[in-house]
Amino acid sequence: MADERVWKGLAVALAALAAAATLHTALSAPRQRELLARKEADLAKIRTFAGRWAAEDALRADWDRRQIAQPADLAELAESALGTGAAKISPRSPVPVAGGWQRREAAVELPSVAYAEAATFLSAAAAAEPPWRLREIDVRPAAEAGKGALSLVLETLEKKRP
Amino acid sequence: MARGCKTAYGLDVSAGRLVLARCGRRGAPQVALAAAADSDEALRAVQAATAETAQGAAALAVAAPAALTAVRRLRAPFASVRKAAKIWPALFDVELPFPVESAACFYGAPRVENGGTAALAAALRRSDLEAFLETCRAAGADPTHCDAEALALWSQHVAEAPPARADGVRALVWLGADHVVVARGRGAEFMAAHVLRASPVADPHAFAALWAGRARQILAAHLAETSATELDLWWTGPGAEDEPRLADLRRALPAEIACRHETHRQPASFLARALARRAADGSGVNFRAGPDAHPAVVRAESRDRRRAYLGVAAAAALVLALNLGEAVARRGRLAAAQRELAALARSVAGEAVPRGQETLMVERAISRRDEETKPFRIARDPAGMEAQLARVIEEAAALGVEISQLGLSPAAISLRGAAPNQAVVETFADRLEAGGWSVQSEAAGTAPDGRPQFILKGMVRHGG
Prior knowledge:
The structure holds two protein chains of two kinds. Chain A is of the alpha+beta class.
């Protein structure tokens, strides 16, 4: 009889545990599903960010591969396009950017320049590697047609020197 | 209803004859022995059956004499089996010639009919049961089952001769060695049983006198009760083996009662076979239950309960294991998603990201990296501000607008100049708007040559 009570007790205890576990499993299922769904939503969101800078990273990698680290000399470009002393160039402090590179700006004052020559200069600067790209321009025409005073801000990238 | 047994023996001893039938749970009952009760082989067979029952390997069923057993149909006036079960003892007590508490009682499966609940009930006084069991033990048999004779006979009758019609009126006459049982019913349904305390086997003349009167009374009542005009009368029992005797009994029946007579095969072992079958399939009555139960039955029931508990425990353990498996699987799915999220967040943010802050850290990293990669985006932009400048100058030239001052930055544009007329100024402003600027224009008087002068100021439009 005592033996039977032990079996009965064991069966009842296990059945109660099983019922409790099943209840817990059933009740916690929505929360688990919600957690998993949230993680999957986060994953999907972050996946859309992954590869966001692929083109920029590829450009940098290409320059690194081809050992392009410093921009063309802006003074030389100006001299070549505009003649000696036509441009007053004031480099600004570099700012660190991604991948060990830094952004450098330069203010260029062209007190009296033909617009066509200025365009040639800007084109040559933009065609260099890394390019000098126009960020700001202020044009004040002179009395003579096709000429004026230009204030430019150009921007380029350069590999940080160790 | 008692549980069934793998093997069951039915024992019928009367007038010095012993019939032992054997039945498996699924097979038909077979006569194991029919011999003189005091013969050696009969004693050996009973001892062997008793030994098997003591080991719990078989059941041994005997029939409590019908004369000692009360069988009634109870009817509760409501159609609820659960409620009816509560009042069966009270209803039965009214029907019994002795207090229901002093009897071993059996209540059959209830049936809801005509707005009420009906059940068959059988009772045997405990003192009679003890005395009867003592008699059995004295004869060398210690039965595990003590069935109700009339019910056993009727159920065997139905088993061996299933009714062709559910409402067919029938009666069974069991001619025992020292008494006769007349069980009657409709279709398979048992209605009542009557005991005649005499037998054509023991004293044919005394029985003949009793039979003529009682048979008329019983069968006429049966026809009246069932509103039938004829009935099937089946004969069985040790006394039914003698065909001339049966013919005499049939002839003694009143002529006004229309009967079709049939005789069961192997009539002498009918009761023993009934007892064996009912004990084997668990369909029988067992007055030897509760405190009167046979020790082997108590042990077997205890073993069955232990098995049931074990089964419950095993099933519960399985359910627990399934739950555990589900929990582990869930945790695994969550951990895998978390690992993937952490790895992806790290690849975007460029550093380890605290758990739960992946999206926040990634968004911060994105805004930082956006700023860091912006110069590269500008560097690879095939158009850039140079193209914007060229476009503004081309638009101005096309409209005949003279620009006297131009300022252009990524966020703003400012223009001062003169146009052929005010409409051209507005067109120029519209074209700048189309180029992604949010433009405000203002008049600045007229040039010496009379052309209207203007100032246009624009801010870059978000998304423009």
